[in-house]
Structure formats: structure tokens, C-alpha cells
Amino acid sequence: MKNATKLFYFVFFTFISFGFAEDGMKEKFKNIQMNINQQNYIIFEDESLIICDRESDKYLVEITPEIDLYIESRKVDLDAEQKSLVREYYEAQQILFSKRNSIGAKGLHIGIESAKLAVAAVGGVVELALSGFDESVGDEFEQEMESKAERIEEKANAIEDDADEFEYQVIQINKIDRKISRTIDILAEIDLSVDEDRLSIDIN
Asked: What are all long-range contacts of 174-179, with beta carbons under 8 Å and residues at least 24 apart?
């Protein structure tokens, strides 16, 4: 994965995560819809995958954990091959959604720790000034800041693995979507693809 893309995911998810308290943040992310393309977004409700129109919030598709398929609340009968494809799509979106939650939660932790480090740095500079810029105080302050910054960097690097998996799942979902479009006529009319340029989170 390109460094620029990794940086985008890190900055994007860190930024949006500031809308949450630190406690229970993974649960809160589960309640946030995720735009998948220009037309639609997804949300999981009671483990069912719901695909909605972004403008009207109309339920377009529901896939239950049992892989029952509903189009605008009407159940659609599937043969074995079709059900297998719908299951693949459901599971791939489940992983993508979960990975989004993980990146967002980790990004929030990093954002909070970075903010605390910035406050500590300002306090350290004041303390250093009050000490008359004592060399020993300066050395101790520098070592402490470097140590904390290294720990934050390690956590930021760990997000790269999640970002790699996130991008992989986008590719897999689009492969499955193309198969579904050729196999299930009624779903061919609904955009199930994931557009990385449109991927974002709406906070209601």
C-alpha cells in the first residue's frame, strides 16, 4: 500500500474519531453509517447488513446473518450459487466495517495521546524556562518527550496493517459485486460497489 494512502487513512480516521469520548468508542463506531459510493451507505443493525440511499435514507438492501436477502423489504429467493455470492459480500462488508471501527478507535487513542504529549511539551518548556534553562532539566525533558513520541509512533505504525486490510477488502468487495451483477439481476440495479474516493463516515 502506498505511503500516501496509509497517511490518508490515518489522518482521516484520526480526525473523525475526535467526535467521540474515549470510553466505549468501538461500540459508538458501530452505530455510524459508512458511505460506500456516491449513491449508497451501509450500516449494520442487529448483525444485518443494511444498504441505504444516501439522499433519502431509504432501505434498499438487507442481508441478514442467515443470508436472507431483502430488496426494499421484500424477500428474494436465491439459489445456492446466488446465496454463496451474497454470503461472500456480507462477510467482506462485515470485515471492512469492523476494520473501519478498529482504525477509528486506534486513531482516537493516538489523537488523545498526541494531544496529551503536546500539552506536556508546553508544560515542559515552561518548567525549563523557570529552571533557568538548566541543562539536566532540559536533557530529562527531551528524553521523556522522545520516549512518549516513540510509543505514539509505534501505535501509528500498527494502523498500517489495518489500513492494508481495509484496502484489500475494498478490492474483494468490488470483485464480488461484479459477480453478483452478472448472477442476480435484481441486485445489478443497485450499486453495491465500494468507491475509495467516496469512502467516508456520516456522523448523525
From this structure: 176/85, 176/88, 176/89, 176/92, 177/89, 179/85
Q: Which residues lie below 8 Å from residue 48, measured CB to CB, with a gap of 6+?
A: 62, 63, 64, 65
Q: Say whether pTM exceeds 0.85.
A: no
141-159 pLDDT, tens digit each = 566 666 666 665 666 666 6
Q: How far apart (Å, rounded) are the C-alpha atoms in residues 30 and 99?
A: 11
Radius of gyration of the chain from its Cα atoms, rounded to whole angstroms: 22
Cα–Cα dist 119/198, whole Å: 35
Measured torsion, CA atoms of residues 109, 91, 38, 7, in degrees rounded to the nearest 10: 30
Task: Give the HSE-up count for residue 182: Cα atoms under 13 Å, Cβ half-sphere.
Answer: 6
Q: Which of 196, 130, 190 is CA-nearest to residue 163? A: 196
Which uninterrupted H or E stretch holds 180?
Answer: helix 135-183
Q: Euclidean distance between the first and final Cα of the chain, in Å?
A: 31
